[in-house]
Design a protein that fits this description.
The chain is of the alpha+beta class. It has helices at about 1-50, 55-70, 80-90, 120, 145, 205-220, 235-245, 290-300, 395-405, 405-420, 430-445, 450-460, 470-485, 490-520, 520-530, 530-540, and strands at about 75-80, 95, 100-105, 110-115, 130-135, 135, 155-165, 165-175, 175-180, 185-190, 195, 225, 250-255, 265-270, 280-285, 305-310, 315-325, 330-340, 370, 375-380, 390.
Amino acid sequence: MKTLRNNKKLTILVACIVAFTSYSFKSDFFEIAKQIEIYTSLFKELNMYYVEEINPAEFTNKAIKNTLKDLDPYTNYYNEQDVEEAKISREGEYAGIGVSVRYSDIGIILTEIYQGYAADKNGLKVGDIITKVDGQQLKGLSREQLSEFLKGAPGTSVKLEVDRLGENFNFSVIREKVVYNPVPFYGMIDDVTGYIALSRFNLKASSEFRKAYEELEEKGMKQLVFDLRGNLGGSLREAIIISNFFLPKKAPIVSTKGKVKKFNTTYRGTNDPLTLEMPMAVLIDRKSASASEIVSGALQDYDRAVILGERSFGKGLVQRYRELEYGTQLKLTISKYYTPSGRCIQELDYANRNKNGDVPKFSDGSVNAFKTKNGRVVYDGGGITPDIKSHFKPITVATESLLQSSAIFDFGTVFYHQNKNIITAKDFEFTNRDFRDFEIFLISRDTSFKTEQEKLFSKAFASTVDLRKEENLILKKLKESKIDEIKKNEERIISLIQDEIISRYYYEEGVYQNRLQKDKLIEKAVNVLNNKDKYHKTLARE
């Protein structure tokens, strides 16, 4: 009898749970359906009665992006054009003229010319602004519209009108297949030290890296400097394969954990490594993110390489693409990833924005300690902290504003057109004396680099006329003040300007040729690799 009563209670409990779950699911479904119906009826009324014509695609695109903006910045909606661009980025192949671009209200700004491709062969230059394509004026067009103009089938011709520092030029360019190599440079630093730079984790990353590694090994490489600086990430799969090159088969490389259990996975090396013994130094900086952090984090946790540079970006989130209707996609964050020691290196806590919408940093709160294979202490929250830090000073607020502006890029454009030639890539040096020219450029010609104080001051004086003289004096003081602030990071800025200038004459390859001769972090990495006692001591338990 007692058993019967217990069975009845259990049946009632299960029924309650099922009913609650069913109600919860129906409630959620009803709420979703309700909100969709509200939006549909609102859009119908606007489309029928609003005084001006409404573009349905643009209207919906904005509505969706506004819906997603309060989540993390990696959860994005992709319309048909965006899907194609994302595919190009992942695969590293497309048909075009061989350029990287930035879109503006004026037109399409060329930010990089790929050596040997159509744009390069036809004389287009970094800094050129395409203002017309096949007679179509580009001014005022949306980013989505601009992104379509340079694409086309290989062999087709496109006519371009270009603004080059105020002068107009015309070009006729034949589109061709463009292949982006994620290993922009590799070579021998000395008789035994190899160097490989990886700029992104597209689907060619592991195969191109392996090719470079094997070629350097044939040349006598006994130790490796692996440069991940500026690498914003990409394919999780490629990061796992490259980590496996230096870690044992079946070793855990990264784990993912999220709300949906089927996405919770531990990824292990599935192949025999290239080497488990070769000494390695991995270079990272504040722009090394995502897949770069998976690789550097795994190698650090296994004490497989000395990590040098600056604390990395801190992107510990994993995204996946979901197919939507009519060829569109949703890229959404599905989980967080964890290094082999158990660290999640995510820096920004998007789930707990404050009342002003600001995102707190995990690294500003309490962080947790973990241990590497050898027992060294490492921490979560706030990226990968290098074992040996770079010589650069912390970035000031003014310098951060400078780096977010186009000032260095614009200075490079002016410098290039004022100087027909420079010395060889490996020997070129932008000196502290040259930095004065950059200061003059910022004060007299640049309009992109504005500090928060300048913006607020200009806004406050926007409606005044009588105080124009006083306004100019104060603005002059503010400009002088920001120059003083960025000079605190002069060495870092000089390095960036030097790279920018060299790339105009000798492309990306020239930048790396110069770094092998003059980059202090590469020099520090080689010194660590050459000093076996220091190398092993760095990786030993503290």
